[in-house]
Every structure is written in C-alpha cells, then in structure tokens.
Design brief:
Chain lengths: 294, 321
C-alpha cells in the first residue's frame, strides 16, 4: 500500500477524512472539557460570563459540597459494594457455565444452549420479573440488584468461545490420569483463563456501576441508593439534600448551590472510569472481538 | 454477530448423534461436575427469565398480589382492548416508532462511516489515540449524559448563550416536545457511535491489502476502493447489526427516555417504555402494564423476523434466525 503513491484526489479525500475525524474528537471531548472547567467556577460568574479563564472566578466550593455530602459518599460506597458483588457473582456463574458448553462431547449442550439463547430474544418483561423478585422477598435488598441479572448469555458465549480456543491436550492427559472435571477446571483451565475473566469482570463492573434502572425499580430506602440514583436526584430531578441547605433559607441560594453541585457531581462521578479506561482499552476491545468470532 | 455463534453451532457430525441413552447417562454420571458447573446459570435462568415468561399470564388476568398469578381472575384481552382504546394509544405507538426509526436511520450509519474513516488512518498510534477519545463517552452513565444535556442545554446554558449571541431567543431544549427526539437521538450517537464502530473496525482489519494495491494499480481512487473493497467486506457484519437493531435486542430499554421524560415534553417523549414504567411502578397497575409490555415485545419480535427475512433475501441467505 505504502509503496504506491496516492493520487492528488486521494490526498484531498484523505485530508477531508482526517479533518472530519479531528472535528468528531473535538465534538466528543468539548462537552467533557466544558464540564471540568465549569466545575471549578463560581456559578454566578459562570452564569454571567460563561467559561472564563480568570482565576478569580474559580472556586472549589462545588467539590467541597460534593465531598462532604453523605448521600454522595454513601451512594459511592453502595455502588462499589453492589457492583463488586455483582461482578463476582456474574463472572463466576458465566465462566462456570461457559466451560462445559465449550466441550464438544458435552451431553445436553444443545438443549442448555437453546435454553439460554431463547432469553436473548424473548422475555417476560419488566413487570413479571419484578413480581418474581418481589415474591422472593428480594425487594429493597442488594440481592435484587446482583442476582436477577447475573446470567448474561452474552458473557457465557464469550467464555465459551474463549475456552474453545484453549488447547485440549492437557485436559485429556489429566483425564487419563484420573483427574475429575473439578480438578481440571480449577488447576488447568482457570489459570489459563485470566484474560477472559478480566474482560468479563470489566464489562460487568462498568455496566453495573453505570446502571440506574435496576436500583430505581428495586430499591426504596434512599440510604441504599447507589451513586447513579443519587446523581439522578441532583442532576435531573434538581433536588439538593435539604440537610445541606438547612441553614440557608433563600431560594436563590438554593438554586445557586444546586447548579454548583451539578458540575462537580458530573466530574467526580465520571472521572474514575474515564481515567481508568484507557489502561484497559485493549481488554474492552477484546471483549467485542472475541464475541464476534464464531 | 455474537448472537449467531450460539445459534449456528458447529455442525460437526459427531458420533454423539448416534450414541444411545445408556451412554449418555454414563457420560453424565462420569462428568457430573460439568453439570454442577452449568447448574447455577440454568437455575437462575429458569427463575429470572422463564418464570417471568410464565408470569406474562398476568397480562390476561386481573392480578392481585394476594391471589398470586394462578389465583387471579382471567380477563382475557381486556387489558389489551383497554390499551388499544386508550386516548393516548396512537400517540404512544407513533412516538415509540418514530423515536426508534429515526434513531436507527440516523444512528445506524454513523459507526460504519466512522470505521471506514478510521481505517484510513495509517499511523497505528494516531489511530489508537483517536479511538481512545471516540470510545470515551461509552463509559459515562446515562444519568450523567442526560444530566449533561440538562446543564448544556438549559435556558442559561452554553448552547443557549450561543443562540443568544447569534441574535436568537433562548430555546427550551429540555422541555419543548419538538426538541425531545433530536436531543435523545443525537446524544445517543454522541455516546454510542464510537463504541459501536469497534466491530466494523475489526471486520475491516480482515481486508486483504493486496486487493487495495491491485485496485490502485488499476487506477481506482480511494473512494472507489472504499466503496468496492472495504464496504463489501463488512457487509455481513452490517446485515447482522441491522437485524439486531431492528429487533431492539441491543437496546438497553427505555432508561434514557425515562430520565428525559417530563410533563412538559411528554407529547413526544411519552413512549411505551416510559408508559410501562409509569403505570407499572408508579401506579402499581401490574396487569395493564404487563399487557402493554407484551404488546411491545410482540412488535419487536415481528420487526426482528421481518427484517431478518428481508436481510436474508438481499444478503445471499444469511440472516441470524
């Protein structure tokens, strides 16, 4: 490719493509940069002047409020707990299930796989699922958030695809030596499976961390709210915790504080993932790729 | 295409097809650990996926929690009739269809174009960096994305500052019904297009560079090569993604619509998912809500099979179902 010189026209096309890509990158990071800069600004200055680079307009008050807000800290810790527990459960369940399904001679493979696949196309829906969760007494507990969604057919397929790619010789040798499937799985397969376990764990954690809907449906007690639901109150329902503003009576001040908190809340809640994800980029991409292999 | 891997299992004519019941039982006995491994997933699937499918029966009943699913009284298609005759039925249906169809028409080609453009970036490091930025919004939560919309497009926000600077009046982007669809769809593209392009970028990596060389020698321009070499290569992937998108399988549901919905913009923002949420969870009208949802599921399935049929026709017999 590089040996052949591009024509003038091709160079123009390439130039256009490159310019478009740069514009897209700007369109994507522009709003993010705005959020970060705005989060350091005094809300009245922001309201009157817009973004400014005059440091006298800067203030850390938003961050101070966010970091001293029990609801946000609590939400953060709740989310950490829910997402971690969910990750452990879903990854174990899916990796365990993916292994037998990857074996060619596994009796019942077709039936079990069909059982899983059907659920990708058809489901009972929100309300019937809610009623099942309710009748199991899981409402308003962590279990409602970590158990019903634990089986991900997509993750099982990812795991299965990975296991299929592993060399089979060692299994067979171990089997001949009289090792049980349990021993084979834990002493041979699992040590080789760190990459897939890592990919699945990343997906599960990020997905659960960013989800608000399950907790919206299943949780009632506000002390159990994960971060996303707390954010929803601040960002979308425009509600500031009355405890914070109990001393401040004025409506205008309340509005000012709610504006102030928004930017800092957006930055504080999104930054950890945005900063961490470049280090894991190749694993995330791998997840998409592995799944696309037949 | 991930979804296909399960359906089109490798069709090796294994001897297993011919082994008898006794041998199967012996296999199960000898390999019981394997069955214990799949057991948790199977049990959870039955409880949380199949039990709710059975629970759909409440759409045909007058459900009361005390009587349970079986004990509640049958009402036949009463809830469906009530929904079809509801004054907002047409509005809900058209809002849902329009939001999804416009979303698909506008949103579907973007990742493909993006991938074709990225494929032209020859420097690997440069490409990586661009991708890094393009994928970033995928890691921001829906709540934060909608929160950002409220902040950026508020009457005093930066976008309206621009509008005013150009001599316009501030627009109520988040409460005027007309703006709901553009805001919903464009923010969706902003958040998801980069990530959705990964699969096409991967497919484009399979293009044989020799094809490009040969075509260039024959005088094909860059655009011609993209059109006649790159695009046909990713065509099967595109076909599968179209089917999945049309079936709504990839859609995570109406989470975002629920966040963006408010009483002021509900003329356009009220879609089936927001309606189900409202009547189901805020009014605890379980049976009616389940009926509305079942109707939605059936529409999705019909869409899936129809598009699958069409794609099969134009794609040399390759669909997903």
């Amino acid at each position: 490719m590089d040996s052949i010189k591009p024509t003038k026209m091709d160079k123009v096309v390439l130039g256009v493509i490159f310019t478009l890509l740069v514009l897209l990158v700007v369109a994507i990071i522009g709003p993010l940069i705005y959020m970060v800069v705005a989060s350091f600004m005094e809300p009245t200055a922001l309201l009157n002047k817009g973004l400014s680079f005059d440091f006298s307009d800067y203030s850390l008050e938003g961050y101070r409020m966010i970091l001293s807000d029990d609801k946000i800290i609590g939400g953060f810790l709740n989310a950490l707990l829910y997402s971690s527990v969910f990750t452990v459960i879903t990854v174990s369940v899916c990796v365990f299930a993916g292994y037998p399904l990857a074996l060619d001679d596994f009796v019942g493979r077709k039936v079990i796989m069909t059982l899983f696949i059907i659920t990708m196309f058809f489901g009972g829906g929100l309300i019937p699922t809610y009623l099942v969760v309710k009748s199991l007494g899981m409402l308003d507990t962590i279990w409602a958030l970590v158990i019903p969604g634990a089986v991900s057919v997509w993750n099982i397929i990812l795991a299965r695809t990975f296991f299929r790619g592993l060399p089979k010789e060692m299994n067979e040798a171990a089997k001949i030596d009289g090792a049980s499937d349990f021993t084979i799985f834990f002493s041979i397969i699992i040590p080789l499976s760190k990459p897939i376990v890592f990919v699945l764990a990343l997906y599960a954690f990020v997905g659960h961390w960013n989800d608000f809907f399950q907790s919206l449906i299943y949780l009632e007690n506000q002390d159990k709210y994960p971060l996303q639901l707390v954010l929803r109150r601040i960002l979308i329902l425009n509600k500031v915790d009355p405890n914070i503003v109990s001393s401040i009576k004025e409506q205008a001040e309340l509005a000012r504080l709610s504006e102030l908190m928004k930017y800092a809340a957006i930055v504080v809640s999104s930054l950890p993932l945005l900063v961490m994800y470049p280090f894991f980029q190749k694993y995330f991409e791998k997840g998409v790729m592995v799944g696309s292999l037949k | 295409m991930q979804q296909t891997s399960g359906i089109t299992q490798n069709k090796r004519p294994e001897a297993r097809n011919r082994i008898g019941l006794m041998e199967k039982l012996r296999y199960i006995k000898n390999n019981y650990w394997l069955y214990l491994f799949v057991l948790p997933a199977v049990v959870l699937t039955i409880i949380f996926k199949y039990l709710p499918m059975y629970g759909v029966l409440i759409a045909f009943k007058d459900y009361s929690f005390r009587k349970g699913i079986l004990g509640s009284d049958w009402v036949g298609f009463h809830h469906f009739e009530r929904f079809f005759n509801a004054p907002n039925f047409e509005q809900l249906l058209f809002n849902t269809l329009q939001l999804n169809i416009y979303g698909l028409l506008l949103g579907f080609p973007v990742p493909i174009i993006l991938a074709l453009m990225l494929n032209q970036v020859r420097k690997a490091a440069m490409k990586k960096n661009i991708q890094l930025f393009l994928y970033a919004p995928n890691f921001i939560s829906v709540v934060v994305v909608v929160g950002m919309l409220f902040v950026l497009f508020s009457p005093t926000g930066p976008v309206n500052k621009l509008v005013v600077a150009f001599g316009g009046m501030p627009l109520s982007f988040m409460s005027e019904p007309e703006y709901f669809r553009p805001m919903y769809i464009l923010s969706g593209i902003w958040q998801g297009a980069g990530w959705a392009s990964i699969i096409y970028v991967a497919a484009l990596a399979n293009v044989d560079p020799e094809l490009h060389n040969a075509a260039t020698l024959d005088g094909a321009s860059l655009l011609q090569r993209i059109r006649h070499i790159d695009l046909p290569t990713i065509r099967p992937v595109i076909a599968i993604m179209i089917i999945l998108a049309a079936g709504g399988i990839m859609a995570g549901g109406g989470d975002k619509a629920i966040l963006m919905w408010n009483e002021m913009n509900m003329e356009k923002s009220d879609v089936i998912s927001t309606y189900v949420y409202r009547i189901g969870f805020q009014q605890a009208n379980y049976s009616f809500s389940a009926a509305v949802e079942l109707f939605n599921t059936v529409i999705n399935l019909i869409m899936l099979f129809t598009v699958n049929f069409i794609v099969k026709r134009v794609n040399d017999g390759d669909g997903i179902v």
